[in-house]
Records
---
Amino acid sequence: MPILQLPIEGAPPKADRPIRKIAIEEHFIGPDSDPHDHEAAIVRHSGIGPKWAAAAVQRLADMSSIRIDEMDAAGIDVSILSLTSPGIEQIPDAATAIQTARAVNDYLADHIASSKGRFEGFASVALQDVDAAIAELRRAVDTLGLRGVLVNGYVGSGEDRAGLYLDEARFDPFWKALADLDVPLYLHPRFPDIAVKEAMYRGHPELISATWGFAPETATHALRMVYGGVFDRHPKASVILGHMGETLPFFSWRIQRAFEYNPLDKRLVKRLQDYLAENFWVTTSGHFSDQALINAILTIGGDRLLFASDYPFEMATDAARWIETAPISENDRRKICYGNAEALFGIAQ
């Protein structure tokens, strides 16, 4: 027998509505991508099973009904879409990378235009050729209206099989272009280089991807930017890290402490904690943990956190339910869910 409910007569009419959200790490595959190739790559590189990979890629390839239905269920007004890893960065030939990036950005812009305000996007660029990357970044932002750029980890290159990292001097003109355009760079994980995988993860494929491998790969890349002086040379540059900062908010004190003991040649203007609070933004993508959220707020502040789900590799509805009840102030909740993204990307609602 159902229990007798007390009448609720004074609640405001929208009291049961979820808080609105802007989600900023939500992925898709390019127009010429074969979904089956993506399924096989997920299984081959990460140790994840084929059933999960098939479901994720079905969601990844959809740019309409499946994606929009989940956004509606999670209270997400706008998703900022980005090309999934390994993206343009894996392409060894610069000319092919340039052509592919342009096609992906045009494809994304078409879907944004037809989405009735539900989609925005991050550009893809071919950093195999820095001048071409700068030209495409400017076209993507100024002509297509994209909100920044997403880079999937290190950049594959014929001259350096192990990859190029964004603290290297060759990328300084690209950082300047980002700062001049006043748009952020989202640094997204990529599977570790094959030589690293073969040594460190031998016999443990379960550790390679999101379980563990993505975090140290991406955190190391971010630390290279800091200790390589990127933000001293380009103080207006902004970088977004997903997954609650790829462990850096938690480890920042110890990293800085150990760095100050070193006798080597790297010297910075500020502490790591200062760069995290001034040049970095952190998203909640794929990390729906109260403890991690509070640690990030204590390290960099609620003004630097952004909501994301990591669609299609996580459920947006799980991300939404968590942030709506996380033990934080209502002001911080609103900033994280939509206010900070509106300010960073200039999204008017």
---
Amino acid sequence: MASEKIIIITAPSGAGKTTIVRKLLSEMPELAFSISAATRSARENEVHGRDYYFLSLEEFHNRIDEGAFAEYEMVYAGKYYGTLKSELERIWANGQYPLVDIDVKGALSIQEKYHGKALTIFIQPPSLEALRIRLGERGTETQASLEERLGKARYELSFAHEFDHIVVNDELDKAYAGVKALVKDFLGRP
């Protein structure tokens, strides 16, 4: 059984977090992706128990009442997301370390609860303008949703100093190497 250490990676949307997380998971078998619970519906290619644990609002509230979450929050109106304690325990029991890919507030909440056992890394875009360009290049944003994401990014960036480490993703390979070195050091790996 792995020690109860947790790796938490967060970033504003478009900062490159998902790419870095996927690469870490593919290169470090001692890490396992912590699957979050959500009250939203599954998207077309998403699978319950692989992408998220999709729960009804009632199920989610029952789990809150049972104290089943390491952290949770209402991210959008009526849409809850959270990290189940049972998910962390499943990964530890499997001899691995949970890699938690969540938003800033959730990350700070887990950091507080698992103080000393958690490594928190904030992936920061080189600038808001660079983030605007990246989000625009995705081709998935309307002007209104782009402005909403940039507003949320400004807010999230104001919390960066509360994390153990800030890694600026100006160049993906360099940012990834920095994150991987931090994770290996935290786990005591060569």
---
Amino acid sequence: MMNKGLLIVISGPSGAGKGTICKALLKKQAFWLSVSATTRKPRNGEVDGKSYFFLEVDEFKNRISKDGFLEYAEVYGNYYGTPKASVQERINRGEDVILEIDIQGALKVKENYPEGVFIFILPPSMEELKKRIIGRGSETKESLLRRFTSAYKEINYVSKYNYAVINDEVDKATKKIENIIVAERCRVDRIKDNIIDSKEGTVYEQFYD
């Protein structure tokens, strides 16, 4: 019997570096990065099915009515969501799926898919977080204050996650997440169907490459 893949949910406050870590993970292992759906119009250079799944509002609402999203939200008049079918299809094929998402979205995913692996990315310090946000060079004084205040609140959600990883150095943080994934693949409740035969109770199948 094939093991299912893992849904690896990575989130954290703005400036913690979750996007950078996800890019590093995708370079090192064969993960599939979940693609969100949205009702906003494509921007220059964006590709349907790669950047986002671009849907009309009626289609998005129809999928909501059919429980077609792991999570969704309306932001500034546009809908955004994580399609359930595409994620589940990959997981059923034994592929590991990475979902990079904000904290509120991650908590909604946890309600719908509690067997996921939920990893919270932390900055090494709030001072370093402030430096990273300022370093982007795209924040006004007001937006910087808003983001920093929001980050203080968001860090309190770390207790809702399975793991916390401090992103002091990207390579170290990425390695920790890789180790978490290895440990999760060895959990008995994930592999028990492959190591215990339903009839004999003693027959083992090979479940590692």
